[in-house]
Write a structure and sequence with these properties.
about 400 residues; NTP_transf_5; about 5% strand; Renal dipeptidase; alpha/beta
């Protein structure tokens, strides 16, 4: 595929990381452009490898290399973090198996979205992908029972979600539990993505599930087609600000996806443009070989524009998960999220501003039976907050 993206502003250290990741490094063959090794800021190289969460695969490449152009301390630092991640993934694997047992005992269907199961599925080795927590998907009707199980097991619920009139069901998509002793976080999802995204029902996802061989206890994953939908939506929603998400796509596409099935799912859930963005980025950054039919997604102008827009997140170490996010980044990301939406999603998103927010209740506390009054009062409460320089929601 002809290059479609302007990558000039990406740091050369990140370009070198990308070249190493997609190279066939061996002890006697190094096929990397040697000019990329000139004037490298090796501390930035390490920081970028950590930020983008690709140091495990980077380690697997470097350990095979007989390349003295990379300082020993760089290789040693990457190796140290790789070993730490391996222990972390083994720890998470044991916890994943135990949580799966607890949920199975109470007959709660559970799909592993990320974590060790995904690492094993995509890379064949849990040590080659990082995970800081366990992300699982269950039917929304089972949330209260799931909370009961995790709390009894020692987890504490992170009550960060504010809600009024049950808006949490569609404004959010997961709740978080943290084990104070094990320092493990479990995110219980009832949707793949926050609203107003259109997505398959849990029943359909469960019907198409795959069984992982990573543990003795049965552990289930999304089908490969559903996984492609999920990973593309997740990466796009975060601006592809970590190339690890694109490396996941590279691995998944290399596993002989059912092209027609993937295209149909993307079409059904109005995500063809996001699929195109994803494949353009993967093919240009990782030289991912695209199946012929899926490659057609890369021809759309909207997909190309979205892919170029994502390069903004690679020009510096953008971290959307750590506050405060710089105002310029937050503004760009807000515009990017809106650009990703389908026409129907944009309409629903705009209309959602008419639905009461928890901030409305904070501004004017009303008894529960009178919460319906927040609908007609919302414009006035919003204007009042804006006049006082408070949040616009």
């Amino acid at each position: 595929m002809v290059n479609q993206l302007n990558l000039k502003s990406i740091p050369k250290e990140l370009k070198l990381i990308l070249e190493i990741l997609k190279s066939d490094y061996s002890s006697d063959v190094v096929a990397i452009d040697q000019t990329l090794f000139r004037d490298v800021d090796w501390n930035l190289f390490i920081d970028l490898a950590m930020h983008h969460r690709v140091y495990p695969v980077l380690h697997s490449k470097l350990k095979l290399a007989n390349d003295k152009q990379i300082p020993d301390y760089v290789v040693e630092t990457i190796s140290k973090h790789y070993k730490q991640n391996t222990f972390q993934m083994l720890f998470l694997t044991a916890e994943m198996e135990q949580v799966s047992k607890l949920f199975a005992a109470r007959e709660i269907p559970l799909l592993q979205l990320k974590g060790p199961a995904l690492a094993h599925d995509l890379y064949g080795d849990i040590s080659l992908r990082t995970s800081s927590d366990l992300d699982v998907l269950i039917p929304i009707e089972q949330l209260h029972l799931a909370e009961e199980i995790l709390v009894a097991y020692g987890y504490e619920k992170d009550d960060y979600i504010k809600t009024v009139l049950n808006d949490w069901k569609w404004r959010h998509h997961h709740i978080t539990f943290i084990h104070p002793i094990k320092k493990i976080k479990v995110e219980i999802h009832w949707r793949l993505s926050p609203g107003p995204a259109k997505e398959p029902s849990f029943a359909k996802l469960w019907e198409r599930r795959r069984k992982s061989s990573i543990t003795n206890q049965p552990v289930y994953l999304l089908s490969k087609s559903d996984l492609f939908l999920f990973l593309t939506a997740h990466g796009a929603r975060h601006g592809w600000s970590r190339i690890r998400w694109l490396l996941d796509i590279h691995q998944l596409v290399g596993q002989k996806l059912d092209e027609e099935r993937v295209l149909q799912i993307l079409k059904d859930y109005r995500s063809l443009h996001i699929g195109g963005q994803t494949l353009i980025l993967a093919s240009e950054l990782f030289h991912t070989r695209l199946p012929s039919n899926m490659g057609l997604l890369c021809n759309g102008e909207r997909s190309r524009n979205l892919a170029q827009g994502a390069i903004f997140y690679l020009e510096s170490m953008v971290n959307l998960h750590t506050d405060p996010v710089p105002e310029s980044v937050a503004r760009y990301h807000k515009q990017n999220l809106f650009a990703l939406m389908s026409f129907q999603q944009k309409c629903i998103f705009i209309l959602s501003f008419l639905y009461p927010y928890p901030e409305d209740r904070d501004t004017l506390p009303l008894p529960m039976p009178l919460h319906f009054l927040y609908f007609p009062l919302r414009p006035f409460l919003w204007a009042w907050r804006k006049s006082r320089g408070q949040a616009l929601t």
